[in-house]
Task: structure prediction
Amino acid sequence: MENPFDTDERRAFRDMIRRFVADEVTPHADNWDEAGAIPASLHEKVGALGVFGFGIEEKWGGLGFDDCFMRTAWSEEVAQCGAGGVAAALGARSISTKPIRDLAADSIRDRVLPEIVSGRRSSSLAITEPSGGSDVAGMQTTARRDGGDFVINGQKTFITGGMSSDYFVVGARTSEGRLDGISLFFLEADTPGFSRTEIDRKMGWWCSDQATLYFEECRVPANQLLGEEGRGFLAIVDNFNGERIGLIAGMLGAMKLCLNEALTWARERETFGRPLVHHQVIRHKLAEMSARTDMIEAYLHMICWQVNAGRTPVAEISKAKFSASKALEYCASEAMQILGGAGYLRGNPVERIYREVKVQAIGGGSEEIMRDLAARQMGF
Ligand SMILES: Cc1cc2nc3c(=O)[nH]c(=O)nc-3n(C[C@H](O)[C@H](O)[C@H](O)COP(=O)(O)OP(=O)(O)OC[C@H]3O[C@@H](n4cnc5c(N)ncnc54)[C@H](O)[C@@H]3O)c2cc1C
Result:
């Protein structure tokens, strides 16, 4: 579909990313996923494209401007390599740089943002706990004041990049209050009392790492408090919006790949003397996949337009997130059906996307939580 918001600059950026993904990512995505990691060099290659620099000032190595259409073009295009773990491994830093950029002390920003934005080092966002992820205000990790420090105790789990990141943005409870008792902290991986273990044997996203993090009397100086004490919940929910927009765009890319794979196959494969695509049942599946993809794309463009205008359309972001995971579930399932037995084999991107649908329906705000948030935002 033609995008009414397209400009020469946005088209050029997308073309550059598309070429990069086709040349440097897609040919290796299968092997990386089976091996359980992307090469360390990929972080810096992607950093050199400017992908991590949106909304970051040039003095910190950023682009000095932001553009939601360009940000989402990256998420959409990289998803078309067919392995969601690639975007997850690279993107852990993208969901944790905003609190550092907005809330960290200058001494921290000056030191770590250039490293993160260039891809030399990585950062992760640590919110979810073994006791639950949906109820953010119910988190149990604590941070108590002790002289000029905070001392953190507790656990986080499912943290993307948790094994490989050097820096963490950690949510912790500084007082009893549900919403006003939560604060955010910047924490370095070599802090005494910090340890981590890998979460193994996952359904998908194999080439990204997820970890459980442990904080045992982990002491951080008070200047590593991000923003004001007790204002962390607002910063976390604000940060979720950007993460969710990226996930929507990634799902859009995966839907497009499912449609392309299914259509290519349906044109080549013959049953009962004619190509699959000439059987009406199959044509209707493809038309439905295309329609659902178009709807998510159009919705995403409207959200990007609003974000660029300085608004945060929380209800629309929430509705688009659960609509996208439902649409992706449909597209992955029907693409598998059209591919028949061939779709059931490892090495086929549709097989992987089918396995990875659920992380999109759960992670970064589950479908249930997104529906509830949308309803509340709309005043229901
Ligand atoms: C691969 C992967 C990567 C992740 N990366 C990160 C990361 O980098 N950082 C991070 O902090 N977290 C991360 N997460 C955690 C993710 O955000 C959580 O899994 C998610 O928020 C849901 O939390 P939970 O798994 O604890 O489920 P729970 O909160 O225990 O919920 C379980 C189920 O109950 C439903 N539910 C909960 N409350 C309600 C309600 N009130 N009404 C109806 N239904 C409800 C939920 O929708 C869900 O389906 C990751 C998860 C995965 C799987």
